[in-house]
Amino acid sequence: MSKTRAVIPGSFDPITYGHLDIIERSADRFDEIHVCVLKNSSKGGTFDSEERMNLIRGSVEHLSNVKVHHFNGLLVDFCNQVGAKTIIRGLRAVSDFEYELRLTSMNKKLNSNVETMYMMTSANYSFISSSIVKEVAAYKADISAFVPPNVEKALKEKFNV
Ligand code: PNS
Question: For residues 75 and 111, is the Cβ–Cβ distance under 8 A?
Answer without folding.
Answer: no
